[in-house]
Amino acid sequence: MRNSKLYWNVSDGWTMSRRSLKHIFREPESLLMAIGLPIAIMVMFVYVFGGAIQTGTDYVNYVVPGVIITCVGFGSSLIAISVTQDMTGGLFERLRSMPLLPSSLMVGHVIGGFVRNAIATTVIFLVAILIGFQPNAGLLEWLGVIGVLSLFMFSLNWLFVTIGLITKSVETANAATFPMLFLPYISSAFVPTETMPSWLHAFAENQPMTPLIETLRGLLLGTPIGNNAWLTIAWFGGLLIVSFVIATILFKRRKRE
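User: That's the sequence. What structure does it adopt?
Assistant: Structure tokens below.
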């Protein structure tokens, strides 16, 4: 019985994941935006601002980890809008009358968002290399990059699922994602935090995006990582667990309404 229940849970999750994956390619606007916006930001910072920003290295090498984080954040934020649309547009009610596990809806959005982010991130890495990015990571370092980015993606995906379950309209869901999308700009993503005013420097050094970016920078370019890797795991591992638990509770409440 347990094995049968697990099988159907996995099967339902895969069904809703396929739905999300089909939307990526049938309605490619979200994928194009998830790729195009970070590329535009990267090109602008490298060719417009890069010459005026001193980082001790080629600016394109410095800025790429921050651009990747911005890419993932924007791609994941689309999940909040999609979940809100499904919860307010009648899909959730239809799932109740079908032989599908309703919570598979959340799993589908998380998996679909992960695949969209993986595609966008790969394209941005390739564009970065074309404009001069020169990573010196070995196999183990690239595996570390994949692991760190996967943790970041899943934690944000579940966070934005939670936001989508809370908000009552697409406009509200879109606005609610803004604070998380803004965080990379107040970190070491685009400029060294030492150049910021003292009050802003303290925030930039102690918010979760900075250790994440410094970890990626260390893995890709060989810069010192220090305790940033452990801070990254603590920040985003904790966010993943908390977001998953809250999303599950919120979803169960919606089932009882």
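The chain has a mean pLDDT of 82.
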